[in-house]
Each structure stands twice: as C-alpha cells, then as structure tokens.
Specification:
about 45% helix; alpha+beta; about 10% strand; single chain
Length: about 500
C-alpha cells in the first residue's frame, strides 16, 4: 500500500502552504475506488480496497511519507479579486511518481477545516464528490485533460447545507494544483522572490525544457496559453460548461479542475448557463474562450515582475509588451485548436491554410443550424457520423426543417468529396467520426438521478451503471441507450447546478 511520496511542493516552496492534518471522521466507508488509476500510480488497488484504505482516504490515517499541506492561493471570482482563498477544505497529501515517470499530486477534498477555511466547515457531501468521479472519468474517457478521482469515502457523519447531507471525502489526483491564483497570491503581496521561485518550480514540473532559459517566465506564459487554448477547444467540442472559471480554478498544467456547478449542453445554445451562482452569465458556454483569455491576462499581470529583466521602467514596459503579445495571440491559438477539433468531428482531414476559412465557416454554420432548430448537440454530431456512412435518416429526425439541413449537408458532402476516392474512404470517415463524437456524455438528469440515489438512499447502483457507460462513451450499446437520450425540455429548461460547497 506504499504511496512512495516525494513531496517537492512542501519541501521546496517555504511559505506557499501550511502544514496541516486532516480531521478524523467517525466511520469511513469506501464508496468508490478507481482501480485503474491506482494501478497507474503504482499503488496496490486490492490492498486499498479495504478498511485500512478507507481510513487513509477518509483522512483518519495519514500514509507513510505524506506531508499534508493546505496550499495558499488567491483568485478572481466572477471578476472580483480575493487576495486570500487557499485550500479551505482540501489538503495536498503529497506527490507520487507514477508508472510512466510523471509526478502526480494526491490530495484530499472535504477533509476538514484548515487555516484558509474562513467561515466554512471544511467538509463535503457524498453527492458533489461522486459528481467529481462521474464527470472527471467521463472527461478522461473523452481524452480531455482532467484531474481524476482516486477514491470517495463516506464519513459516517452529516454535513449541513440547505439540509443535512451524508458527508464524504474525495481523493483527487492532478498533474499539479498550481493555479493562476497561486501566482496572484504572491503578486498581491509584491513578493517577487516567491513569484520567481514559483515560476521556476512550475517550469521544472511542467515545462522542463524551459528551465534555465533566459526568458523562461515568458515561455511559461506562452505554454500555459497553448494548453488552455487546446483545453477549452476540447470543452467546446463536447458541450462541456465548467460553470465557475475563476482564476483559482485554472491550472497551469492545462487540466480541467473543480467539477462543481458544471454541466453539459443538451440543445445547442452558446448562452447556456446552468450554474445557480452565475446570475449574469459570465461563464456561459460560449464565453469560455473569452474567460480563458481574461484569466491568462491575470496570470500575465502576476508574472510581469518575473518576466522583466530588472525593475527599471524600460524593462517593465518591455515585459508588458511581451506579455500583451501572448494574450493577443490567444484568440488565434484557440481558433486553430477549435478548427482542428471541428475538422475531426466533421470527419475532415487537415487542410491547407487556404481552406481554413471555408472549413471554419462550414463548422460555424453547422452550429448555427443546431442553435436555430434547438437540436441536441451530442446526438447531432453522432448522427452526422451515420450520414457519413450513408445513413442520413437518423440525423434528419433531429431537425424540424430538413430543408436547412439538406442545404448544409450538400456543402459538407462536397467538402468530404475533396478527400474521398471511393466508398471505402466514406466508411473510414464514418468510423473516425464515431471515435471522436461520443454517443454517451454525462447527461445532467442522469447524473442527478445517480447522485440522488447515492446520497438519499445509499444506493450506488445507478452511480456504478452510469459510470460504466461514461467510461465507454463511443460504444453504441443497446443496454446503454437510456444514457444517450436527451432530457425532456421541461427538465433542461429548469436545470440548475450548485458548487457543492
């Protein structure tokens, strides 16, 4: 059961966190263990699936070699700056080197109060923690960079929100928990020395080829921009709405983190918002690329003293110009990443620069068509793969006005014909499309159904069945058909998600 910890964050970054111990819980009981992830980390999954494993994941027993810390960070939340947030209900147990030689954080969430808890109780409930499992594992199966749940333990005690709920602790694995807000924390305190230390630490961990380079902080900013452009394009490709893109929820590793008020589109709508706390629609589906750039600008501001060669006005001005260039280049990075995503979903191969505008228009017009007719986002893409194979019937049933659809299909067919040499190519295209356009996503009503059964009735059956379907998102199996069905419109129109705190 050895974790083989090597805790560089706690060891090499003094003043970045507070050493702390998780709060013991009365009756830890394992609800979920991610056996595949455990094996990936070099852990003994069989040994962890035990009373002793529940004690570790519940926080009652700190494993040998762990050095638990509550990390400090700040953050812009819905546009307003909070100079001190930090891990109010989480602890970084430490880091392990996985079987592929990658350094991975292992952290508890819901493990009790810390010095950063403010008025919170530091606890978590079963429902939101199991949501992290479902959505995180779905994102992983979809090939989208994400933190992942290693375990969820029921604590045997209630947590009090709008009503008493069964308590739980999540164990989360991440490439790191370094956030934009981590840099903002030290920038707000004008602590340039620690900003430099943090930049060098992050580079060593995520961009080792930049270590020692003369403009490595600027290089780090560029890499983060590239990773975020690719990540958000992937979100947009599957209809994922993060729901709370605050700067403390944007990692420099480029992983999706914090599955609080997240949701997935049903009928395509760029203005879709499901989060109960996003009253102004700041984090609406279509705003996500804009917010990613906004967050990146906050990182650039925090990094300016490190990007600058010295503290002279000329050096600062040059740093501002360099950082601004990165921020201004983000829309092009994102557009390229989104076009790559859309080409794959449309079954198109990479085209030359002269075709970019035409392919972008083809994808945008498809989305506009889905929006006008209120078509289910996921099924539209999936049935387009059927159309590539010659079966357009199931696609047509999704549209009220098939005349509009036919006009667009004629353009798509013509574009496909530029690449096809015959029927075999069309079938190969359809097969490629079915490998990238999922049949099953975490439909919001199915997620809520599974969480309610687990939380209200201690019934993990619906959770386990949904999880199994989400881990095979491209397989169109008849027994999983209920998970591919859109929610009734009356359910979707009133659906709201909550942050789970």
């Amino acid at each position: 059961m050895s974790f083989r910890f090597d805790n560089t964050y706690a060891r090499e970054l003094p003043g970045f966190a507070v050493r702390w111990q998780p709060t013991a819980v009365p009756a830890p009981r394992l609800l979920f263990l991610n056996r595949d992830l455990a094996e990936e980390l070099g852990l003994d999954a069989q040994a962890l699936d035990s009373v002793e494993g529940a004690a570790i994941f519940g926080g009652n027993r700190v494993p040998e070699g762990a050095d638990p810390v509550a990390q400090a960070y700040a953050g812009h939340q819905f546009g307003g700056f909070s100079p001190q947030l930090g891990d109010g209900r989480a602890l970084l147990l430490g880091e392990v080197i996985d079987r592929q030689g990658r350094r991975r954080d292992v952290a508890l969430k819901g493990s009790g109060r810390t010095p950063f808890s403010r008025s919170g109780d530091g606890k978590a409930a079963v429902g939101p923690m199991l949501r992290e499992v479902l959505v995180g594992e779905a994102m992983h199966a979809l090939g989208i960079p994400t933190t992942r749940a290693l375990a969820v333990v029921a604590t045997g005690e209630p947590v009090y929100r709008d009503r008493p709920l069964p308590g739980a602790v999540l164990t989360r694995v991440a490439a790191s928990h370094v956030r934009v807000g981590t840099f903002e924390y030290f920038a707000a305190r004008n602590d340039v020395e620690r900003l430099r230390l943090l930049a060098d630490y992050t580079i060593a961990r995520h961009d080792a080829d930049l270590a020692g380079a003369p403009e490595r902080a600027l290089g780090l900013l560029r890499r983060v921009a590239q990773r975020q452009a690719a990540l958000v394009a992937q979100w947009m490709g599957v209809g994922f709405i993060h729901g709370v893109m605050n700067t403390d929820n944007m990692t420099l590793s480029g992983e999706t983190i914090d599955y609080g008020p997240c949701a997935f589109l049903e009928a395509y709508d760029p203005q879709a918002v499901f989060s109960s706390i996003d009253h102004g629609g700041r984090y609406a589906f279509g705003n996500q690329p804009l917010i990613a750039r906004w967050n990146l600008a906050r990182l650039a501001e925090a990094l300016l003293p490190v990007i600058a060669e010295d503290e002279t006005e000329a050096a600062i001005a040059r740093a501002v110009a360099q950082a601004t260039e990165v921020i201004d280049a983000f829309p092009q990075l994102y557009a390229a990443a989104l076009l790559q995503c859309h080409r794959a979903k449309l079954g198109l191969g990479p085209a030359g620069p002269a075709d970019d505008a035409a392919d972008t228009a083809l994808a945008e017009d498809w989305l506009a068509l889905l929006h006008r007719q209120g078509v289910d986002f996921t099924l539209a893409w999936r049935r387009l793969a059927d159309a590539a194979a010659g079966d357009e019937g199931r696609l047509r049933t999704l549209f009220g006005d098939t005349g509009e659809l036919e006009a667009w299909l004629s353009r798509w067919r013509a574009r496909c014909a530029q690449e096809d040499q015959g029927e075999a190519d069309a079938q190969a295209r359809a097969a490629r499309m079915r490998r990238i356009n999922p049949w099953v996503i975490p439909r919001n009503h199915r997620v809520e159904e599974a969480l309610a059964a687990a939380s209200d009735h201690d019934d993990l059956g619906p959770f386990q069945q949904l999880l199994a379907a989400l881990r095979q998102p491209y397989e169109e199996a008849p027994e999983q058909a209920r998970y591919a069905e859109p929610a009734p419109e009356e359910v979707t129109s009133s659906y709201r998600t909550f942050c789970g705190t």
